[in-house]
C-alpha cells in the first residue's frame, strides 16, 4: 500500500479523545503517571511502547472499563470518568485478547454486537455485509468462530468492534499474529475509518505498519508520554539517512564526517540528501569512473524507535 | 428491553448447539424419580396417606431439587462471558446491567418451567402420578419456584468470583436446602430440630406447596402461603444480588 496524501485532522469543536493528567496505579505501582494525550477526529494515533508500558491500561481506561486514580478523559466531548456510560455505544473496542463467541457463526457474532448497539434490520444487514466484505470474511460468514484460524478470529474480533460504526475506535494490537494480507486489510480499514471522521487509537508492535499508516506516533514509557510526533519527525529526530555509493572494486576512503566503508560500498550520513548528493559525487574525484550506483538509504521508524527507547534508558 | 431479548436469544443459540447439559437436567431426575418411587410408599403410609404409589413424593421432590441445579445454566453463561473476554465487550456496548442480567436469566426461567412440566408429565404418563388438587395451583407453585431459582442464580453470579466458586455455592446450598427442606425425606419423619429449620429454605415451601396440591387436593387458595413465601425469597435474593452485583468486577471463568 502506498501511503497517499494524509488528510489532516478535522478539528471539530471537541477532539475525539482528550486525556489530561491520567494516573492509574496497580498495587501502589504507577502504571500511568500523568499522561496527556489529544487525538483529533479523523486522526490515527499509534500508541507504541514496550511490553508493560501501560498501553492496554490506557485503552481500558478510555473504554470505561477501568477507573483512573486521577485525571480526566473526555470521549467526543463526554467526560467518561464522571459518567462512564455516557459514551457507550460510540466507542468500538477491540481489546488485546480476542473476544468472540466460539459457538456462534461469524455472522451471528457480528449481528449480536450490532443489535446490542441498536442497529436494526436493513441497517444491521448492510453494516454486517460491508464489514464481512472489507475484512475478507464473506466466504466464512456461516462458519462458527471456533473453526476459524487465529488470524481469521482476530479479523472477526476487530469486526465486532466496528459493526456499530463507532466514532472512537480503540484497537489494542489488532494485527498481532495476523498474516501480511490480513494486516494489510486491517490497516486499510483503520485508514478508512479515520478518513470517515473516526478517531482511532491503535497500539501495535509492528513499526512498519505505523509507517504505512503514516500515523501520529505516541510512545509510552515508564508511565509517561515519551514522544508524540509524526513518523517523519521521529525518523529525523532519532536517525540520520545515508547516501550509499557503490563502486566497481574497492571503495575509496572519502573525507566525510561519519563515513563508513564496507567492501565496494561507502555509507555517508546526511541530513540534506539533495545537496549532499552532489557534494559526495564531486568528492569521489577520479574514482568517479568506477562509481556504479548512488542510492539514498532512508532510516526507518524502527531504527528511530529503538534509538528513542535507548535514549530513555540512558537517562 | 429489546437488548435483553437479544442477549436471551443469543444464549439460547448457545444452549441449543450444546444441549447436553440441559438434557442431563431432564434425564437424571427422571431416572432418580423412577428408582426412588417405591421407597416413598412406606413414608407416605407413615404420614397417613392411603391409595398412593410413591410418585406423589418422588416426582415433585426430584423436580424441586433439579430446578435449583438449573441455576448453573445462568452462572455458566455469565462466567463464560468472562472467560471469553466478551464481558468487556458487553460493558462497552450500550447494554445496561439490568438488561444484561434480564437477558441472562430469562432463558433459565423458561427452561426451569419447561423442565418441571416435562418431569410432571413424565410422572403422570410413566409413573401414574395422580394430582388430587387443581392443576392451576400446581402451575402457580411451579412458576413461583422457577422465579426463585432464577433469583438464586442471579445472586450466585453476584457473589461468586470464579465459575468454580459459583458451582460450589450452588451445589452446597441446594443440597443443604433439599435435606433441611424435606424434599428427600419429609420433614415429619426427621428429627424435630430439622423441622424447625425447614421453613427457612425455599425448597420447603416448594415441596409442601406441591404436597398440598398433589396429596391434600388443595386449590390455588391452599397454596397461596407457599407461593407468597417463594415470592418473598425471590425478592430477597434479587435484593441481595443487586446489592452485591458489580459489573465492573474482575471475574474469572478459570482460575
Ligand atoms: N489488573 C491488573 N492488576 C495489576 N497489575 C496490572 C493489571 N493490569 C495491568 N497491570 C500491570 O500494569 C502494567 C502495564 O500493563 P499493560 O497496560 O497491559 O501494558 P502494555 O499493554 O503496554 O503491555 C504491567 O506491568 C502490568 O503487569
Ligand atoms: Mg497490552
Folded structure, characterized:
The complex is a heterodimer of chains A (315) and B (255). Chain A is α/β, with parallel strands linked by helices. Chain A folds into 2 domains: 17-236, P-loop containing nucleotide triphosphate hydrolases (Rossmann fold), CATH 3.40.50.300; 240-298, no CATH class. Chain A is 32% helix and 27% strand. Chain A has 9 helices and 14 strands. Chain A has helices spanning 55-62, 106-116, 121-134, 150-162, 180-195, 207-213, 231-238, 273-283, 301-314; strands spanning 17-26, 29-39, 44-48, 70-75, 78-79, 91-94, 168-172, 199-203, 216-221, 224-230, 241-247, 260-262, 265-270, 291-297. Chain A has a 6-stranded mixed beta sheet, sandwiched between helices. In chain A, strands 2-1-4-5 form a 4-stranded antiparallel beta sheet, covered by helices on one side. A 4-stranded antiparallel beta sheet of chain A has the order 12-13-11-14, with helices on one face. Chain A starts with 16 loop residues before the first strand and ends with a helix. In chain A, 44% of the residues are buried. Chain B is mainly alpha-helical. Chain B has 12 helices and no strands. Chains A and B meet through strand 6 and helix 2 of A and helix 1 and helix 6 of B. Adenosine-5'-diphosphate binds at residues 26, 31, 49, 51-57 of chain A. Chain A: It is a peripheral membrane protein. Chain A: Pfam families: ABC_tran. Chain A: Its main location: membrane. Chain A: InterPro entries: AAA+_ATPase, ABC_transporter-like_ATP-bd, ABC_transporter_ATP-binding, P-loop_NTPase.
CATH topology of the largest domain in chain A: Rossmann fold
Secondary structure tally, helices of chain B: 12
Q: Note the run of SSEs of chain A as H and E.
A: EEEHEEEHHHEHEHEEHEEEHEH
Largest sheet of chain A: 6 strands, mixed
How many distinct domains of chain A? 2
- Strand content range of chain B: under 5%
| Structural classification of chain B | mainly alpha
What number is the mean pLDDT of chain B? 92
Which outline of chain B best applies? elongated
User: What portion of residues of chain B is helical?
Assistant: over 70%
Widest β-sheet, arrangement of strands of chain A: 6-7-8-3-9-10
Strand-pairing-aware structural class of chain A: alpha/beta
Estimate the helix proportion of chain A, in percent: 25-40%
Low-confidence stretches of chain B: none
Bound compounds, each kind once, are: adenosine-5'-diphosphate, magnesium ion
Q: Largest interface: which pair?
A: A-B, 28 and 20 residues
Radius of gyration of chain A: 23 Å
GO molecular function, one term (chain B): ABC-type transporter activity
Protein name (chain B): Transport permease protein
Main location (chain B): membrane
Subcellular location (chain B): Cell membrane
Amino acid at each position: 500500500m502506498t501511503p497517499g496524501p494524509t488528510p489532516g485532522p478535522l478539528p471539530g469543536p471537541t477532539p475525539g479523545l482528550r486525556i489530561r493528567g491520567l494516573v492509574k496505579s496497580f498495587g501502589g505501582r504507577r502504571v500511568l503517571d500523568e499522561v496527556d494525550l489529544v487525538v483529533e477526529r479523523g486522526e490515527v494515533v499509534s500508541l507504541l511502547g514496550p511490553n508493560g508500558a501501560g498501553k492496554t491500561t490506557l485503552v481500558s481506561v478510555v473504554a470505561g472499563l477501568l477507573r483512573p486514580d486521577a485525571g480526566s478523559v473526555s470521549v467526543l466531548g463526554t467526560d467518561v470518568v464522571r459518567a462512564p456510560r455516557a459514551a457507550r455505544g460510540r466507542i468500538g473496542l477491540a481489546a488485546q485478547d480476542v473476544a468472540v463467541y466460539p459457538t456462534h457463526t461469524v455472522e451471528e457474532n457480528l449481528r449480536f454486537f450490532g443489535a446490542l448497539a441498536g442497529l436494526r434490520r436493513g441497517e444491521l444487514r448492510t453494516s454486517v455485509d460491508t464489514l464481512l466484505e472489507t475484512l475478507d470474511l464473506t466466504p466464512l460468514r456461516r462458519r462458527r468462530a471456533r473453526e476459524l484460524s487465529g488470524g481469521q478470529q482476530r479479523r472477526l474480533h476487530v469486526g465486532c468492534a466496528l459493526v456499530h460504526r463507532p466514532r472512537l475506535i480503540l484497537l489494542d494490537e489488532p494485527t498481532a499474529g495476523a498474516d501480511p494480507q490480513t494486516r494489510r486489510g486491517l490497516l486499510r480499514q483503520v485508514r478508512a475509518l479515520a478518513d470517515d471522521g473516526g478517531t482511532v487509537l491503535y497500539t501495535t508492535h509492528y513499526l512498519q505498519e505505523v509507517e504505512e499508516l503514516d500515523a501520529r506516533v505516541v510512545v509510552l514509557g515508564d508511565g509517561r508520554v515519551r514522544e508524540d510526533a509524526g513518523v517523519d519527525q521521529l525518523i529525523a529526530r532519532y536517525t540520520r539517512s545515508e547516501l550509499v555509493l557503490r563502486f566497481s572494486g574497492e571503495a575509496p576512503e572519502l573525507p566525510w564526517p561519519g563515513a563508513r566503508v564496507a567492501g565496494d560500498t561507502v555509507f555517508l550520513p546526511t541530513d540534506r540528501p539533495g545537496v549532499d548528493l552532489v557534494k559526495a559525487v564531486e568528492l569521489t574525484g577520479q574514482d568517479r569512473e568506477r562509481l556504479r550506483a548512488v542510492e539514498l538509504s532512508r532510516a526507518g521508524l524502527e531504527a528511530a524507535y529503538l534509538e528513542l527507547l535507548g535514549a530513555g534508558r540512558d537517562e | 428491553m429489546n437488548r435483553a431479548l437479544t442477549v436471551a436469544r443469543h444464549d439460547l443459540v448457545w444452549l441449543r448447539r450444546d444441549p447436553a447439559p440441559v438434557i442431563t437436567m431432564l434425564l437424571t431426575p427422571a431416572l432418580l424419580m423412577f428408582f426412588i418411587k417405591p421407597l416413598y410408599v412406606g413414608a407416605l403410609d407413615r404420614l397417613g396417606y392411603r391409595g398412593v404409589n410413591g410418585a406423589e413424593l418422588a416426582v415433585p421432590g426430584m423436580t424441586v431439587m433439579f430446578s435449583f441445579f438449573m441455576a448453573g445454566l445462568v452462572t455458566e453463561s455469565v462466567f463464560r462471558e468472562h472467560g471469553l473476554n466478551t464481558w468487556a465487550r458487553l460493558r462497552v456496548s450500550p447494554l445496561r446491567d439490568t438488561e444484561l442480567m434480564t437477558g441472562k436469566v430469562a432463558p433459565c426461567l423458561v427452561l426451569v418451567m419447561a423442565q418441571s412440566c416435562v418431569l410432571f408429565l413424565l410422572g403422570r404418563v410413566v409413573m401414574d402420578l395422580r394430582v388430587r388438587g387443581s392443576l392451576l395451583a400446581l402451575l402457580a407453585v411451579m412458576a413461583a419456584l422457577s422465579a426463585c431459582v432464577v433469583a438464586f442464580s442471579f445472586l450466585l453470579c453476584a457473589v461468586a468470583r470464579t465459575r468454580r466458586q459459583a458451582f460450589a455455592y450452588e451445589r452446597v446450598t441446594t443440597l443443604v436446602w433439599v435435606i433441611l427442606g424435606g424434599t428427600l425425606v419429609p420433614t415429619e419423619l426427621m428429627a424435630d430440630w430439622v423441622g424447625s429449620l425447614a421453613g427457612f429454605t425455599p425448597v420447603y415451601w416448594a415441596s409442601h406447596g406441591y404436597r398440598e396440591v398433589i396429596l391434600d387436593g388443595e386449590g390455588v387458595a391452599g397454596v397461596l402461603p407457599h407461593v407468597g413465601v417463594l415470592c418473598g425469597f425471590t425478592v430477597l435474593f434479587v435484593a441481595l444480588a443487586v446489592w452485591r452485583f458489580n459489573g465492573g468486577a474482575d471475574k474469572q471463568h478459570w482460575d
